[in-house]
Write a structure and sequence with these properties.
By secondary structure, this protein is mainly alpha-helical. The chain has one domain. 81% of the residues lie in helices and 0% in strands. It has helices at residues 3-24, 29-51, 59-82, 85-107, 114-132, 141-168, 171-194. It is globular. The termini are far apart.
């Protein structure tokens, strides 16, 4: 793999960890996610005006991915409310690559070399061990459940999006429609949950 790709992926992982740490500390996660999704919707709709819509064959994947993304956000907030950040984040991000590898091999015709598979297992075991080996021995059961569900949702939308982009043949068009739909639905969900037209902080 090209070193540039490796560095970009590592940098993206760092940004993702920082974003999740900030999310954990939010007072009102529903409202904050709604405001974030409003900005994402505006950006995505603006992009769609320039790049257009993806192929209709990819729309089913976009709908499925939207459901997975909404579930991911719900499970993520549930995990952060019920478990420590060090527990929930490591479990969710640790289990996702293993699930993606298995599902990709079974349904997406992806082939992984033995060395790659061993590497994935080692990384997953290492990350999960950080949670298991806690000095106080306390692990919140429901927090772990939501963290595992978060990891499953991550794996699901990763595989779905991979297949969807292949069918679409255009990542920008696919992503623009996906994030526009997801963001609008999340904002509507928050408004309906609060029974008001603007989420309060």
């Amino acid at each position: 793999m090209d070193i540039t790709v490796v560095l970009v992926v590592l940098f993206a992982g760092l940004l993702h960890a920082i974003w999740n740490a900030m999310t954990k500390s939010l007072h009102d996660q529903y409202a904050s996610f709604a405001l974030l999704n409003i900005s994402i919707a505006i950006t995505s709709l603006t992009l769609m005006a320039f790049v257009g819509l993806p192929r209709s064959a990819s729309w089913a994947y976009i709908v499925a991915s939207t459901i997975c993304h909404l579930g991911y956000e719900m499970f993520l907030m549930g995990a952060y409310r019920r478990a420590d950040f060090s527990q929930s984040y490591t479990i969710a991000r640790g289990i996702a690559p293993l699930l993606v590898s298995v599902v990709g091999f079974a349904f997406a015709n992806e082939h992984i070399a033995v060395q790659g598979l061993v590497g994935i297992v080692v990384v997953v075991v290492g990350i999960v061990s950080l949670v298991v080996r806690r000095g106080d021995g306390t692990v919140r059961r429901f927090g772990i459940f939501f963290a595992l569900a978060t990891g499953a949702a991550i794996a699901a939308y990763t595989v779905v999006d991979g297949l969807g982009v292949r069918v679409s043949h255009d990542a920008f068009r696919y992503g623009a429609l996906l994030f526009a739909l997801q963001s609008v639905l999340w904002t509507i969900t928050v408004m309906a949950r609060r029974r008001r037209w603007w989420p309060s902080s």
